């Protein structure tokens, strides 16, 4: 797990559909997968309180606060907001914002947000969001493509032709996720790849320079993220080296502790790599549905 992820408040609220009531420090520091409804804390019990968690106030917490005498209500909110690590406080169900809450939040800069969703829905949205944001991650050199619905990570040494192959795939109607650098996150038992924000939609073609795929081919040519299901390593053809011809010897790439099926594809003049990758994507789909052409051929041969 990443130790901490800091997100701009506008981006955080845009992703989750929250209204900004008080922007405070203007950012949200995420350090915990968990979300808390601070009922015990509003009742005065702060033992075991984890201030690194996002706080959600629902109907129960709100009505409890309203029933407290004004001075006691202010005292409880003051003690709660004295924990400056609290990422933000979210009011569910479009609940009115208590004046004492805003006044105490101003002292520490804690953002106050609001949504019309019910409390359970807010908690669920935050759970999925935090699991994605705080997932273990790593960067890999390569190109990530969506080919016929299959997330394919093209790897190989610089100059082997990854970007040129990706360009041909884009022309054939497939979509680019990331070129050159791929940020990979492990979300539960899946690997999700995306591009660094600064180079998103850009591609480098030797001899041409930098191009913007979205501007050149339209929004249908790009995708912001994709599950990585297959790795295809491009390598220069080596005379005398034995390459897999039947598809019996399955290779895997270990990424963040998960095994991903891998093909090593030799590159030499005259080979149409884009078609080979399209075929690999379709064959992967067939295998995932239980059909293996190599095994069928072996069975037929042995049957004779």
Strand and helix layout:
Blueprint: E1 5-8, H1 9-16, E2 19-22, E3 27-30, E4 35-36, H2 39-42, E5 54-57, H3 59-67, H4 70-81, E6 89-91, H5 99-108, E7 112-114, H6 119-133, E8 137-147, E9 150-155, H7 162-171, E10 175-187, E11 190-194, E12 202-205, E13 209-212, H8 213-217, E14 225-227, E15 230-236, E16 251-255, E17 258-267, H9 273-288, H10 293-303
Parallel strand pairs: 4-5, 5-6, 6-7, 9-15, 15-17
Antiparallel strand pairs: 1-3, 2-7, 8-9, 8-10, 10-11, 11-14, 12-13, 16-17
Describe the 3D structure.
The chain has ten helices and 17 strands. By secondary structure, it is α/β, with parallel strands linked by helices. The strands form four sheets. Strands 14-11-10-8-9-15-17-16 form an eight-stranded mixed β-sheet. The protein has a five-stranded mixed β-sheet with strand order 2-7-6-5-4, sandwiched between helices. Strand 6, helix 5 and strand 7 form a beta-alpha-beta unit. Helix 4 runs parallel beside helix 5 and helix 7 packs across helix 9. It is elongated, with a radius of gyration of 26 Å.
